[in-house]
Design goal:
By secondary structure, the protein is of the alpha/beta class. The protein is about 40% helix and about 15% strand. It is built from 20 helices and 17 strands. The strands form three sheets. Strands 10, 11, 12, 13, 14, 15, 16 and 17 form an eight-stranded mixed β-sheet that branches. A seven-stranded mixed β-sheet has the order 1-2-3-4-5-7-9, sandwiched between helices. The model has no long low-confidence stretch (mean pLDDT about 95).
């Protein structure tokens, strides 16, 4: 009798667990697959190391949904490993109530985040949700508030990565927006606060979901998303790659990975990459790819403010953050969007002890009525603040132009760079020679028989006399002038020299950064 009773209970447990694994049922799973999307469990399976997932609270049921109750209440939570490193995660299950936020879903996510906080472990969010569960009213909104609070509490303590793999609308969008990184699937995911129907009823604008908040919008225009993926599988691959650059928490250093690339490798092509004409563009990406460990550069937000470059790479296996300008786009000037892009990235690296490598070729901040009236000073000050506040090792290499305020804020020695190199092509000055000579020699130019020729002659003279790195080196603002081909070796050597850097800041709640 006892064996029969035990067997009955075990069978019941197995049946219930089988129901949990079915999610919203075969028909809903088929619809998910028909849209080119994986289910929540399939996503977790691909993200984590095989067999490492430990699910939490799979039996939870809604207290408010009157009928057709389904286990899990639209979200799967738990922990596992990526490359044998502990991570916590939640994956919204669109096959169960459209993955909508409810009291129970929030409780599950918040419990998972509390454990992540206590264990100092990264959090990954796999988002695919119709938003708040309307039937639960204020209770569902309170659920979002709990998630927002914990996202903020974890910020800067542990890495947080959000994968937007379907809809993420309304208040739901604030949670991923407050995490460190957002990865979106192209043509399958979207984020907005108010949907097309509400927009049309309020403003009269007729607009579709993709144009309002699709991946293209956030990858190119708003700057909200960091990486775009072609599929769920691609998004998960990018997530694992991005995660590899980070420590588990802010009190650790990121792992150093093995590499076959030689630390002292020279690249003679770099000695000839800068054009003789200072006004002629070149491709900064080529320099980055040449100096980092081969194939290690992961660029973020490549389509948003492409005049600025940010991303992660490795030097001799050690992860670093790269900040640079792209001279082939807007001459590499700083503007409102590139300032925001760079400032946030610098602060992210500083949170997680990731050294910063800055490659400078910037003629200054973009002039003009639009930039000034839309706050280019305030946005530029964010870059200044981020660099000055950061305490991680900082290596700066001045490639070509470093003019005015842009020179100062982009990791200059005076603002806290530990080691500053310059190529022989570096031009460090208050402003470019064309503008400088017009101010300094205005009367002489106006009095000349041929003002244009006179100005051109003065520009050449000014460039030769003042725009060379030796003046800055002699004044102590440059630590060394190096051959371009030895940049990789010099950076690796500098990183070794400042690897134990530790700065204790004054006791205060936090600084008041311009936002």
């Amino acid at each position: 009798m006892e064996k029969s009773s035990d067997s009955k209970k075990i069978n019941e447990l197995r049946q219930r667990k089988a129901a949990i694994l079915k999610g919203g049922g075969s028909k809903r799973i088929e619809r998910q697959h028909a849209q080119g999307k994986l289910t929540a469990r399939e996503r977790i399976q691909q993200l984590l190391d095989e067999g490492s997932f430990h699910e939490m609270e799979p039996f939870n049921l809604s207290r408010f949904t009157p009928e057709d109750k389904m286990y899990g209440d639209g979200v799967i939570t738990g922990f596992g490993t990526i490359d044998k490193r502990l991570v916590y995660l939640y994956a919204q299950d669109f096959t169960v109530y459209g993955g909508t936020m409810s009291e129970m879903q929030s409780r599950k996510i918040c419990r998972m985040m509390d454990l992540a906080f206590e264990n100092k472990a990264p959090v990954i969010s796999l988002i695919d949700s119709g938003g708040a569960r309307i039937q639960e009213g204020i209770i569902s909104l309170a659920g979002y508030a709990g998630v927002f609070l914990r996202t903020t509490r974890l910020s800067g303590l542990v890495p947080q990565i959000s994968l937007i793999l379907g809809p993420c609308a309304g208040g739901a969008a604030y949670a991923p927006a407050a995490t460190d990184f957002i990865i979106m699937t192209r043509n399958k995911s979207y984020m907005f606060l108010t949907g097309p129907d509400v927009v049309e009823s309020v403003t009269g604008e007729s607009i579709d979901v993709e144009a309002l908040g699709g991946s293209k919008v956030h990858l190119t225009t708003s700057g909200l998303a960091h990486l775009g993926a072609d599929s769920d599988e691609d998004a998960i691959r990018l997530c694992r790659q991005l995660f590899s650059y980070f420590p588990n928490h802010a009190l650790e250093k990121a792992p150093v990975l093995p590499t076959d690339d030689t630390p002292g490798r020279l690249d003679p092509s770099l000695n000839h990459i800068i054009p003789d004409d200072p006004g002629e563009p070149y491709v900064m990406h080529s320099i980055i790819e040449a100096i980092v460990d081969q194939g290690s550069f992961l660029e973020l937000q490549p389509e948003f403010a492409p005049n600025g470059i940010i991303g992660f790479a490795r030097f001799n296996g050690k992860g670093v953050g790269i900040v640079a300008q792209e001279p082939s786009v807007m001459a590499g000037v700083m503007d409102i969007n590139s300032s925001d892009k760079i400032a946030r990235f610098v602060r992210t690296c500083d949170c997680y002890n990731i050294p910063l490598i800055t490659l400078v070729d910037c003629p200054g901040f973009l002039p003009g009525l639009y930039q000034e009236t839309h706050g280019v000073i305030r946005h530029g000050a964010k870059v200044l603040y981020a660099y000055a506040e950061s305490t991680v090792p900082k290596i700066t290499v001045i490639i070509r132009k470093a003019y005015g305020g842009a020179y100062i804020v982009l990791g200059s020695k005076m603002i806290g760079a530990d080691v500053t190199f310059a190529w022989p092509t570096a031009e460090i000055a208050v402003m470019g020679p064309e503008g400088a000579t017009k101010i300094l020699y205005r009367k002489q130019i106006e009095a000349a028989a041929d003002p244009v020729a006179e100005h051109k002659k003065l520009v050449g003279s000014y460039r030769e006399k003042y725009l060379n790195p030796y003046i800055s080196a002699e004044a102590g603002y440059i630590d060394d002038i190096i051959e371009p081909q030895e940049t990789r070796a010099k950076i690796i050597g500098a990183l070794a020299g400042v690897r134990y850097k530790k700065i204790e800041r004054d006791l205060k709640k936090h600084g008041n950064m311009p936002v």
